[in-house]
Amino acid sequence: MARLADYFVVVGYDLDNRVEGEGQGRILQRFPEKDWEDSPFPQGIELFCQPSGWQLVPERQPASFFVAVLTDINSERHYCACFTFWEGLDSPQLKKVDAGDADEADEEPAVVQHSKLFAPKSLVVVSRLDYTEAFRNCLGLIYTVHVDGLSTPLETVIGNLLTCVIPVAGGSQRTITLGAGDRQVIQTPINDALPVSGSSVAQLFRQLGIVNVLYLFCAALTEHKILFLSSSYQRLTDACRGLLAIMFPLKYSFTYVPILPGKLLEVLSTPTPFIIGVNSFFRSETQELLDVIIADLDGGTVTIPECVHISLLPEPLLQQTQTALSMVLDPELEFSDQAFPPQSMNPSALKIQDKEIRAVFLWLFARLFQGYRWCLHIIRIHPEPVIRFHKAAFLGQRSLTEDDFLMKVLDGMAFAGFVSERGPPYRATDLFDDLVANHVERIRQEEACPHKVMNHVKELAEQLFKNENPYPAVAMHKVQRPSETSQSTDQSRTPFPVLDDVAVQLFIDHAVAKLKSSPPVVKAELKSMVPSGPPLGDIVDRNGNVMANSARRLEVVRNCITYIFDNKMLEAKKLMPAVLRALKGRTARVCLTQELNQHVLQNRAVLDDQQFDYIVRMMNCTLQDCSHMDEHGIAATLLPLVTAFCRKLGAGITQFAYSCVQEHMVWTTMQFWEAMFYSDVQNHIKALYMETDDGNQVSNSDQQDGSSNRREISALELAAEQNRLWPTLSKEMQMERVQKEESTVFSQAIHYANRMSYLLLPLDTSKNRLLRSSGLGDVESVSNSYVTNSIAGSMAESYDTESGFEDAESSDVANSVVRFINRFVDKVCNESGVTNEHLKALHTMIPDIVQMHIETLDAVHRESKRLPPIQKPKLLRPTLLPGEELVMDGMRVHLIPDGRDEATGQMGGPPLLPAEGAIFLTTYRLIFKGTPSDALVGEQIVTRSFPIASLTKEKRISVTLTMDQFVQEGLQLRSCTFQLMKIAFDEEVASDLAESFRKHLHKLRFPQHVQGTFAFTVGQSGKLVLEPKTKDKNQSLKTLSKNLVKNAKRTISRQYVGRKKEVPATWENRSNFQSELDEDEISVSEEVDQSALTLSSTIRSSDRQTMSNVVERACCRDYQRLGLGTLSNSLTRSKNEPFRISTANRMYTVCRSYPGLLIIPQNIPDSTIHRICRCYRQNRFPVVCWRHSRTKAVLLRSAGLHAKGVVSFFKSPNAPTTVPSQADSTSLEQEKYLQAIISSMPSYSESTGRNTLSGFTSTHMNTSESSDKLRQPKIGDLMKQVLGNKEDVPGTFSRGALGQKAKVISLSQPKVSGKARNSPRGKWGSIRGSGRLSAYNPDIGTRLAGKESPQPNGGPNDPLFLRQQKAYLYIIGDKAQLKGGKQDSFQQWEVIPIEVCDVRQVKNSFKKLMKACVPSSQTTEPNMSFLRLLEDSEWMTLLHRVLQVSVLVVELLDTGSSVMVSLEDGWDVTTQVVSLVQLLSDPYYRTFDGFRLLVEKEWLSFGHRFSHRGAQTLGSQSSGFTPVFLQFLDCVHQIHLQFPMEFEFSQYYLKFLAYHYMSNRFRTFLLDSDYDRIELGVLYEEKSDRRNPQVCKSVWDYIDRLNKKAPVFYNYMYSPEDEEVLRPYTFISNLKVWDFYLEETLSDGPPYDWELRSRQESLAEETAEKADTGAPKSQRHIVWPCYDNLSKVMPDAITKLLQDLQNLEAELGQTSEKWKDTWDKIKTTQRTETKLESKPSFSSSLLMSSNLSHQRRSQGVCLQDSRVGSSIKLGLDCEASATSTPVAGRPSTSTLYSQFQSTESENRSFEGILYKRGALLKPWKPRWFVLDKTKHELRYYDSRQDKDCKGVIELSDVESVTVGTPTMGAPKNVEEKAFFDLKTSKRMYNLCAQESSNAQLWMDSIQSSLSDA
Fold first, then answer.
1. Over the stretch 1212-1237, which tens digit does the pLDDT of each residue have?
2. Where would I find the beta strands (DSSP E) of 1188-1334?
3. From the CB of residue 936, how many other CB atoms can be counted at a distance below 10 Å?
4. How far apart are the C-alpha atoms of 80 and 139, rounded to whole Å?
5. Could you give the residue ranges of the DSSP H alpha helices within 330-349?
6. Angle at the Cα of 1083 (from 1077 to 1085), degrees rounded to 5?
7. Contact 1332, 1630 (CB under 8 A)
8. N or C: less crowded end of the chain, CB within 10 Å?
């Protein structure tokens, strides 16, 4: 029984006391005045009566009611029901207030004086029971008695209220009356454990919605701060009550204040969690709370701050809960789309709905906590049950260890309360206990079906409703309300009277006395055993989550253990890798512990060394994957085993397994030890009570460590039984049981102190190598606990250096272990009630235990050192290049697999990685050489290496090796040769050694100066000793070059000084001054011997030598070949030569990064150059680098203009300038320069007058018609697409790169020389498709800008595009540079603005490309796939842009316009574009010599910054690696793929250059310009250093040398066509990833250092000879893609034949011929055979190209000519012997290709158009005839494209082929001899060719077919 009300209080406005201008409340009266003993009076009630503050108001407010909740110091909740009404103040009271106001007048001058003010007064009932409605009625009645002046005295009513007593629970119904004619019925809940919610939960969901409430629910459970806002106090209380109700069965144990007064708002900044309600009035003050979740009940919103992360329910629970809640709250939703929704769908009444929602949450908790009782450990039964929850096991069994929400809930205070309240096995049970134990099966079956869930929810809701309302048909309440009149009249009100406390106290005393005399009410508590429900393990097993391992894996584990104990070590060794892989799975680990258990006899199993080793290794592997929580209990089951398995080391010395498995997190985790301890204690306590019934079970319980739950009777059931019997036992029996239990716990504590010291003390206690930072805290750890037999021996010496604590005493280790064990003992003993005496005894015992164990370990450690060391694989030495030296000898490491699958065996093939071996650092490379760890692949050798110079990133990693289960430090090294090495240092490698390795590596990677690179240091030591002469010669060369450089520097400085002195000097004077100086230093004589091409003269001989080198170096041969001028003087120079070679830069004074000799227009004097170069960045002014042999258009290159230059250049090019300022004159000079270039073009000099529109067209329209037709579709189509043709604007084009409004285009037909009439110059890329020409689009306009066009069809909207005028010079400039420039419409040059890819972009793109091609780790994420990463890298897009611009330039040059590429600084993109243009336009550059010349000229001489872009020295380290040259090579590779027959060199040649461009093996790609090379004396020494053939300094010499020996670089498909211009497809879809980026050869490293290859081969042969003992040798060899060098093991047919030929010659003793000679012979014989063949059949010279089948040669172009009605077919013969007749010649090459690819199985031996005469009265018709020798038939089709055959003439039926005569209706204009007749046995065919020669060919072909048959 309990009092309905503890206190009644009257609180009023305190008129005398105002603090800081704010009103206060004060308690006017309280009853009873003395506190009750069982519930003291709560303090501060006056604050809660007016939470927003006490204020006077001018108008009377309506009475209000709410319930506040106060929590006292004992966590008891007091419900304060406040009823507030307003009373008027009389005049004396008002005066008091006015006086108070007057004091504050200076602060608030404008106080409004009201005639009448009203003050609040509150009547408060304080109770421990929550009956809101009853309190509202009672207080309302008191108010009514007062207002209406009822006859009942107020004292009586209040006395009755305070003496009313009702039952707390039990479902009784009590009628109460306060003696004023009122009656109320109060129903008590049946079970007070279940919360009473009324309809507050349903209201909460209505106000906030499902998702918001779920957020709040999860936030409350995971201990976040929650704040409710509302303008209604009662709503705040209800919302808080509702939130607490849905948390049942958990109870909220933090701050809970449903209504917080404004004065206490600082409570909100408390650090602890809370649930608080605040009036919306204070909303602004809650804004700055950063970690509080705010729920606005009036607005229906929940605001979660950014810094707060709420863990939500795990899926699928969250989804199922949401579904169930929406079915309760919004049942219409489900049927809202149905055509015939059911009639009654309204949600239940609010009170019922409230219970349904709570039922959903009850169902949710039953699912969350199912099986929790199986994870309770009972560690004491008497005198009180002590229960602990095994969290790790609970999460592990449900596979929810990763779940954030559940982890937080189980760690929370609410759950701790739940365990202590519901843990005891013998107590009263409630609805939740029943649900979680007995309905698990039902819940599991229903969870998938929402309707079944709803039925269950409704059942639960019914029970909840019944609990709250046991008697639904309640008798009516009868409570008076104040009458309307009394509420409305103000004047008649008297203030609330002062009550007579004596009268009220009498009532109370009387009631107390009566209670004392009555017999006490005994509440019969129904205690019972709490049901546990089905064990969790079964549930999970049935779901099948655990059975992830196949039975086969478990069998492997069992077999391996059997082999070990049967001493079949070889078998065990083979299985070991498989076992270690299997142990990743949980079931295999459980299986291992069970198997090992069977081999333990009487707690001991003695093994020999090897068995011990294997068992330890398996244990380590098992423990390695266990988390520190040990959720699956694996470590727990291994714990008894590690103290059982041991080996004898010597007399009386035994080493146990625990000394080798210490390196695991789990042993330093306190929670693990506690759970283990409690589990063991539970088993022993259980055994204690079981032995009375059955003595045998004791021994079992020791064995079954933790699995005891599975027995018939569980520990909890036993405890429940004992608790039931407890009251019946005598005092002595009770004491005896308590003592027995206590000593059981104590003995277990001693046992665990021993166990812990075993696992925490390291084997070598003299070195502090154990303590991991996580568990033991104080000391840093480095452990050797993985040391099994012997590593200890090999490592003993290195410990001192490795350990950070050489001086540490062993006592440090001991102390930290003792501290750890003490902490543990204190915790568990206090929790399990061990007596203080016993605890003290433990504390004194622990140091002794530890010390004793240390002594034992010392002996073990000493003995273990004597064991023979483990056999490790022998370290293999790598083969080195001549001149390459080891910097650091091999360090033993493990090569770990990275993200590439091939080598790990996952894509089939053997697992080559991980491999064990050594890493070697040489002056040139980083080399790993070793053998695979997998025993089955052991005989292979794995080599991975890369040049040190290519290292781009190095980072430290820690690696766990599968075999040894310990974490090792390692390095991840990434190279830009697309190689990645992940290495883990072996334990024998000391950490300082690894560190010095890193330092050496760094030093070698970034030398101080470029002379520190391998290319310079190679073979130095040898050279100094052996060949002093060579060195001297170099010295002299160096002095030469230094001289030259010195002169250059002097000149420059003099020029600079001069400039300072004569500031006003004009440009002219200055240039004269300059030339005088030049004369001074090196005077160049004018009479130059033209043949010699050298500067002869007055220069000193040494300088002359250098100058001649300059001449040779500057690629003058190429300039001469192109007809770009010779080095001659003005007298002998022929005036008609448009260009000349200028020596203005011979001292590198004009431009440092340009070559010494430059091509400039004939009529530009050198003095002008000095002025022009200043307009361009880096002084790189425009110079000619190539000239088109046919159109004579020239290609120029320069850097971008300086910003100032651009504006002055374009703004007013022809405006007369009044004052010729310096800038203007420069601009004019510049214009003159460009004009000089334009006028050098033949097309310009031919044109008539100024380049107007009419003049322009007339020049170009006079070419022959046929050539127009030939060129028209190509240029026309191209330009149409550039302009944006409506028909085909393919979608991929938006990814382009050039400018939008460039006025670029010439639509005219260019002039074509007569001889080219019948052949199209050029070749389109080999991609099949009907698109042909239209599929190609090197768009300049819209898309090159990278912008979408304003018009829908992609056409630009600039009318200037459409003018029919061609510019003579197109300047390709950077879009960003050319802003604001105006174009003069009559100028002869035009600017094409394009967007250039920045070098930063290239650098970043390359980084991403490397990560895509060589990922550092495996990933299954879809957005990390290779293709996705490749796309993200945008590498292909960059290639596409460069190729696109290049093809555009090729096209412009081919139409006769010159082009100047003027981008960035002129040394990156410019170089790429210029080189590609020359490669595409000029077949010479596609040969070995030509390509070398191209690279030397454009890349080396013109100063591409190789050192800077390659980050080759310390200085350029920060700039990072930017592979501009690699990008160029990739573009060449793309072109090579599309035109495989046009290049003399193979793909391997490009890869070779790409590799050595990054390797620094040769000096070729080292410095930034010729100037730098001369300064270092490198430029010409290559030629002079012929004495030392071992060391090649130039990559070109090396290639030449190799090429003579073997055809490695040669392309057998090379059969070029004359004057061939290539036009590759450039769309991303047509580009392929270069296999250079993807392939690797693990057998002997990258295949680009040939000396290594030859050495390795000779070594291999030697070993093979030794091994050959007469056993039969197999000819078969398995080829692995990532291991073998495919070109070596599977050479192509031609290489193989050439090799065989050489071998045969060697065997026959003949001097072997050079391969090239052999090849050339074969080719010439082949050609003569081809020419001798009378039939133009498919010539065998094509068949020789081995992989032709998928490459198309060139695209035949058919142009329909409507007038003649015939079709001209253009095909180019392979050997460029095109016949004069377009049709009859060799069949179109496109036909040849399609023959290989066509879908029909047909063979076209000969084909073409013939006219065939129809039947009687039918006309002659052209048909496409195909002669098929294979099928022996002649077919004819309607047209060339037609697939359906119109007729077949069987050749077997043909009788004769004769010359025919023209008949009626025959085609006109055809010679007579073109007719021939074909007579078959059935009929006569009359046929006609287009001309006689063609007819003859046809007749011959058919005749030969007949004779062949």
1. 444 433 333 444 566 788 888 888 88
2. 1194-1198, 1323-1324
3. 12
4. 12
5. 332-335
6. 145
7. no
8. C
